[in-house]
């Protein structure tokens, strides 16, 4: 039976009531709650002591679909943990049968304080939207007077909304920005907004924009990130620490701008890209996405070679094969790192290793370091091409967080040797997207 076809379920804790007046103090109020609404099933939750009262209710109301789920052992009615695990399991069983959270109502009126607290906690844990409680005029002892009982329902939206906000914040800190977008409601959706409190919708309106900005930046969609409309003000509380800074927005804006044609300006832009890919790869290591980290490492080294060639007036994507320096580069292949035809009728394109060889011809001091990187472990062209994400058939079983972090430290040194103080500031901005350290 589909969830939409199910009726509603009422769960009620069963206490002792006034032992001198069980009918007035216990059975009548429970009956009133049970008769208010149309129920496919009523589940009574007594202790071992009050199970007999639950049996009386079922016999008295023989026409109602009543189940009894007592606490398994004696004296558990005063153990909030034991009560919680039992009630949680009962709700879980109902949901496994196909009852949705909107179809289950919990009444925590009767029973010990431990039982009442446990049922409320279990209801909130399962996101039950409504809880009911029987109130009325109270006597001198503080007990509701017989005949004055009123069934009162209230919504759990504030508490469950707060739970959603806490979950979203946890995702945010760990860089799971798509998870934030999945968890927090979109206040623009008229079908969803009515089910959430105003406080959560206000928070969500700002936080979703922040999450979308970081998510786009993290997937290297700089143009998309630049188009995200961020809130005018920082969100309240702990969220304020994660509001994108002016440096972050400026950084993403610089990366989404068209690539300059001027060689010097193009080299400067690519240096920023290399810093961003370094930080992006470090986040992939953090998230144990080792194969993805290797690809970013390979690209960073390749970019440094391209940048240094631009500094000398050579674009490795468009090389003149008749240029003396280009002709001086050995024609033989280096493993899987070969020359490629250029994009023009008389052009050549140099991949990473051959770009390093060209720099060697040009007597660039970085040439030997780039050649060593091209031959080092998981950063070599051969290992890169054997990645399951390129041409390989199996993942690299030798990749570890420690080994990759060591390689990325070497990459950082390479970028700093190439770009100096500016590279240090660029890497710092790129790394600022890792919010897990805040």
Account of the 3D structure:
By secondary structure, this protein is of the alpha/beta class. It contains 16 helices and 8 strands. The chain has helices at 22-35, 51-60, 80-97, 113-125, 157-173, 177-183, 198-218, 222-227, 246-256, 263-286, 290-311, 324-328, 352-361, 367-374, 381-385, 401-431; strands at 9-14, 41-46, 66-68, 104-107, 130-135, 150-155, 340-341, 348-349. The strands form 2 sheets. It has a 6-stranded mixed beta sheet, with helices on both faces. Strands 7-8 form a two-stranded antiparallel sheet. Strand 2, helix 2 and strand 3 form a beta-alpha-beta unit. The longest helix has 31 residues, at 401-431. It starts with 8 loop residues before the first strand and ends in a 7-residue tail after the last helix. Residues 1-5 and 333-338 have low confidence and may be disordered.
**Tertiary shape:** elongated
Instruction: Tell me the strand percentage band.
Output: 5-15%
Secondary-structure element pattern, one letter each: EHEHEHEHEEHHHHHHHHEEHHHH
What's the end-to-end separation, in Å?
A: 47 Å
Mean pLDDT: 86
Low-pLDDT residue spans: 1-5, 333-338
Oligomer: single chain
Number of helices: 16
């Amino acid at each position: 039976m589909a969830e939409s076809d199910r009726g509603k379920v009422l769960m009620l804790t069963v206490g002792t009531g006034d032992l001198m007046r069980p009918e007035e103090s216990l059975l009548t109020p429970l009956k009133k709650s049970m008769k208010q609404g149309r129920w496919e099933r009523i589940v009574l939750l007594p202790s071992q002591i009050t199970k007999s009262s639950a049996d009386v209710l079922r016999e008295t109301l023989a026409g109602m679909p009543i189940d009894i789920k007592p606490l398994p052992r004696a004296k558990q009615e005063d153990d909030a943990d034991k009560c919680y695990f039992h009630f949680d399991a009962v709700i879980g069983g109902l949901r496994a049968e196909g009852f949705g959270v909107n179809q289950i109502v919990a009444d925590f009126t009767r029973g010990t304080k431990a039982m009442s607290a446990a049922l409320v906690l279990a209801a909130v844990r399962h996101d039950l939207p409504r809880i009911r409680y029987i109130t009325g005029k109270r006597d001198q002892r503080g007990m509701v007077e017989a005949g004055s009982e009123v069934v009162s329902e209230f919504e759990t939206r504030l508490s469950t909304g707060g739970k959603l906000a806490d979950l979203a914040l946890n995702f945010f800190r760990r860089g799971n920005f798509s998870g934030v977008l999945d968890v927090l409601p979109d206040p623009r959706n008229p079908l969803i907004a009515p089910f959430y409190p105003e406080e959560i919708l206000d928070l969500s309106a700002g936080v979703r924009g922040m999450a979308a900005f970081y998510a786009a930046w993290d997937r290297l969609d700089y143009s998309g990130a630049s188009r995200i409309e961020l809130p005018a003000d920082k969100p309240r509380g702990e969220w304020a620490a994660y509001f994108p800074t002016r440096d972050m927005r400026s950084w993403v804006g610089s990366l989404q701008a068209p690539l300059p044609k001027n060689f010097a300006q193009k080299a400067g832009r690519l240096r920023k890209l290399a810093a961003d890919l370094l930080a992006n790869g470090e986040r992939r290591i953090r998230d144990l996405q080792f194969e993805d980290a290797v690809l970013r490492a390979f690209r960073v080294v390749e970019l440094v070679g391209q940048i240094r060639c631009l500094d000398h007036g050579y674009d490795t994507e468009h090389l003149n094969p008749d240029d003396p320096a280009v002709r001086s580069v050995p024609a033989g292949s280096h493993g899987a790192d070969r020359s490629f035809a250029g994009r023009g009728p008389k052009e050549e394109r140099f991949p990473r290793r051959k770009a390093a060889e060209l720099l060697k011809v040009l007597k660039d001091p970085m040439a030997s370091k780039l050649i060593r990187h091209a031959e080092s472990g998981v950063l070599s062209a051969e290992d890169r091409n054997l990645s399951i994400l390129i041409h390989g058939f199996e993942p690299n079983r030798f990749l570890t967080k420690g080994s990759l972090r060591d390689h990325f430290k070497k990459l950082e040194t390479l970028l700093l040797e190439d770009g100096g103080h500016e590279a240090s500031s660029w890497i710092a901005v790129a790394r600022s997207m890792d919010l897990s350290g805040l």
